[in-house]
Amino acid sequence: MPKLLVVESSVIVRGAFKKLLDDEESFDYEIVGTYAEAEKCLANDSFEYAVVERKLSDSPDGEIIALLNKNDIAPLVFTEEIDEMFFDSFESAQIVDYIVKQKYNNISNVVSKLEQLQENKSITILVVTPSHTYKKYLEQNLKLNSFKVLTASNSAEALQKVEQHPEISLMILDDTVAQSTSLELMKNIRIYKSFDDFNIIVLADESNSYATSKFLNAGANDYIIKPFSRNELYIRVYQNIK
Questions:
Q1: Is residue 5 classed as helix, strand or coil in its secondary structure?
Q2: How far apart are CA 208 and CA 211, in angstroms?
Q3: Cα–Cα distances in Å, from 20 out to 25, 80, 165?
Q4: Are the beta carbons of 26 and 1 closer than 8 angstroms?
């Protein structure tokens, strides 16, 4: 059973988490209320997942996130507010997702998200890009959400990976791969991979309808215009795995 650490200052919210986690019986968990208590837990045990409140009494500026990252844990952040300053402050941090703390149902959303991360372990995504920067960025952020990730640098390598790994269900294709070969790649994949079994997201440089329609006509399900945020990436990926 995966180990979960919950760090939350509110006694009421901690109680709600305990009830839901006991009902679900999907995680072995520890629930604490301060940075200091979390630090002790991390010193004595290893955790696969964490849910944390950003502002704690003994770490008001999100220091708990840095502590978890130091212990190779990317947390779910349960926060009272999300604004541009929030995203800018933690853009470089390893964070799985943000969930706004507004009502009891959102605690259920946190638990559902944790269960989704468990399910993601069975989903394999292929990233196709010649760019080392994009490859590293995509691989890192997809793995934060517990996906299995394979990579390829060109269309020929990508087609080989698809043939060798029938478990792949989503391909993210960077359109800096030569367009003629990337279009041919999608057409070849669509010969034996249906839209229901295999989704394709194109990372597009242009937002005009002509450029994007070429990819959609060749067999893509969706596209993201570069540059894109981590949050947009996650939204599109989850839309295309359901």
A1: strand
A2: 6
A3: 9, 20, 37
A4: yes
The whole-model pTM stands at 0.84
Residues in CB range of 47: below 8 A, 6 or more apart: 3, 4, 5, 30, 41, 71, 73
Q: What CA–CA distance (Å, rounded) separates 111 from 105?
A: 10
Q: What three-state secondary structure class fits 199?
A: strand
Domains and CATH numbers, the chain: 3-119 (3.40.50.2300), 121-241 (3.40.50.2300)
Sequence letter at residue 231: N
100 and 81 in contact (C-beta within 8 Å)? Answer: yes
Q: pLDDT of 50-107, one tens digit each?
A: 999 988 999 998 899 999 999 999 999 988 776 666 666 666 788 898 888 775 568 8
Question: What pairs with residue 28 in β-bridges?
Answer: 3
Q: Cis (ω within 30 of 0) for the bond into 166?
A: no
**Cα–chain center distance at 222:** 17
Instruction: For tokens 């490859």, name the residue.
Output: 135
Residue carrying structure tokens 């006991």: 22
Look at the block and give the residue holding tokens 């964490």: 50
What's the sign of the alpha-carbon dihedral 196, 108, 9, 30?
Answer: negative
Cα–Cα distance between 90 and 172 in angstroms, integer? 25
What three-state secondary structure class fits 64?
helix
Long-range contacts of 101-106 (CB under 8 A, 24+ apart): 101/13, 101/53, 104/16, 106/78
